[in-house]
């Protein structure tokens, strides 16, 4: 069986920046699937604005018709902070031999040493960093040391082991701000062409960003 991509986030709301990145990584890394895992209780930021039910409804609309995309609600069903290491441990128990690839943006990767039990992440999964033009991998500090020890020589390395490597993959640059998108949706007429129209309709109908 092929590798599984793990794409976490608030998805508040899901937009084309998320979707395009996930699609390119699905194809370029030959992943069997990408699991979109909406966070329940983010440990490092405020709670999502839209409810879990509305965020899932928006995700379902956004992913409809795309083979290899699926929603995984385990963080919404788990009490307490949504720590990535707990999610990865749950997935590893479910798929003991599969290659698991945690998909991150560069900003999230740069913050990795501040994550809860971050040293355990590479014991449970590979880390794939979606690299946009202009971003450079760190060369110094704890991440620089980690990359010298764990950077994958090529993308195919990820499929040969269940966990342990870090890989950078170039993706199309779509800098869409979720907070600015919520502000546009608050106005009632913004957001067009930044997210799927079905998602925009759900957000406007639910009124979750109106306040």
Strand element count: 6
Number of helices: 9
Assigned CATH superfamily:
HUPs
CATH class: Alpha Beta
Q: For the record, give the distance between the C-alpha atoms at the N and C termini, rounded to a whole number.
A: 45 Å
How much β-strand is present in the residues?
A: 15-25%
CATH topology: Rossmann fold
In the predicted model, the low-confidence regions spanning at least 5 consecutive residues are none
Structural class, judged by helices and strands? alpha/beta
Main sheet summary:
6 strands, parallel
The coarse silhouette is globular
Features:
alpha/beta; 6-stranded parallel β-sheet; 9 helices
Structure characterization notes:
This protein is α/β, with parallel strands linked by helices. The protein has one domain: Rossmann fold. 37% of the residues lie in helices and 15% in strands. The chain is built from nine helices and six strands; from the N terminus they run βαβαβααβααβαβαα. Strands 3-2-1-4-5-6 form a six-stranded parallel sheet, with helices on both faces. Helix 7 links the parallel strand 5 and strand 6. Helix 2 packs antiparallel against helix 9.
Summarize the structure.
The chain has 211 residues and is an alpha/beta fold. Helices cover 37% and strands 15% of the residues. The longest helix is centred in the first third of the chain and has 13 residues, at 16-28.
Layout of strands and helices, then pairs:
Elements: E1 4-9, H1 16-28, E2 33-38, H2 52-63, E3 69-71, H3 74-77, H4 84-94, E4 100-105, H5 106-110, H6 121-124, E5 126-131, H7 141-150, E6 166-170, H8 178-186, H9 197-206
Parallel strand pairs: 1-2, 1-4, 2-3, 4-5, 5-6
């Amino acid at each position: 069986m092929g590798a599984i991509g793990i794409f976490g986030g608030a998805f508040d709301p899901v937009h084309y920046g998320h979707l395009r990145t996930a699609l390119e990584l699905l194809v370029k890394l030959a992943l069997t699937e990408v699991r979109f895992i909406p966070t329940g209780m983010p440990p490092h930021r405020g709670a999502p604005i839209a409810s879990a039910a509305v965020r899932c409804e928006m995700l379902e609309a956004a992913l409809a018709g795309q083979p290899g995309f699926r929603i995984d609600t385990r963080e919404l069903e788990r009490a307490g902070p949504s720590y990535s290491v707990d999610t990865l441990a749950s997935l590893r128990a479910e798929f003991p031999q599969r290659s698991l690839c945690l998909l991150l943006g560069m900003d999230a990767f740069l913050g990795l040493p501040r994550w809860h039990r971050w040293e355990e992440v590479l014991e449970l999964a590979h880390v794939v960093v979606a690299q946009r033009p202009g971003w450079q991998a760190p060369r110094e500090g704890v991440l620089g040391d980690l990359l010298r020890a764990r950077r994958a020589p090529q993308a195919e390395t990820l499929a040969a082991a269940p966990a342990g490597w870090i890989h950078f993959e170039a993706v199309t640059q779509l800098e869409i701000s979720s907070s600015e998108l919520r502000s546009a949706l608050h106005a009632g007429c913004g957001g067009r062409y930044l997210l799927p129209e079905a998602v925009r309709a759900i957000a406007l109908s639910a009124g979750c960003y109106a306040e």
